[in-house]
Amino acid sequence: MINDFKDIEEFFKELDKSMKNTIEIFTIGGAALLRRGMKAATKDIDIIVSTKKEFIELQTALKNIGFQGQILGKEYTHMNLSQIFQRGDFRIDLFEKEVCGKFSLTEEMKIRAEKVINLDHVKVYLCSNEDIFLFKTMTEREGDITD
Question: What is the pLDDT of residues 82-100, one digit of tens each?
Fold first, then answer.
């Protein structure tokens, strides 16, 4: 479990050092709620990127800093989850633009998102509470309804 957003910030700083190109990362779950003080801890960081190019770049960078791809469980069957990466207590649920076949990262969502980390290559945005609510209602993972 991750219970301090500073640990997430340190993760993104480490990730930034392994990136070659600039990428915009949108967090859509517990990490955003943790940052806003609406949740005490999160078990993962739900990340959405806009393009296949960003997805591949991020996937490569995660592997370069020691993250391992994981086999998806049944709770992820309907989520269109592209990949899960794990390293110690950090688990990244990575989506390319779409979640659950119903929820897509739109330009309007990007406008509503709050930029919280601005590094050389990594720009991290927290999606709005309203967009997180919609995301959480479409998943079937333990804890999402409680969130």
Answer: 788 999 888 998 888 887 6
Mind listing the domains of the chain with CATH numbers? 5-138 (3.30.460.40)
Positions in the chain short of pLDDT 70? 71-81, 100-102, 136-147
Do 114 and 25 touch, CB atoms closer than 8 A? Answer: no
List, as one string, the DSSP characters of 47-116.
EEESSHHHHHHHHHHHHHTT-EEEPPPGGGTTTT--EEEEETTEEEEEEESEETTTEE--HHHHHHSEEE
pTM (two decimals): 0.86
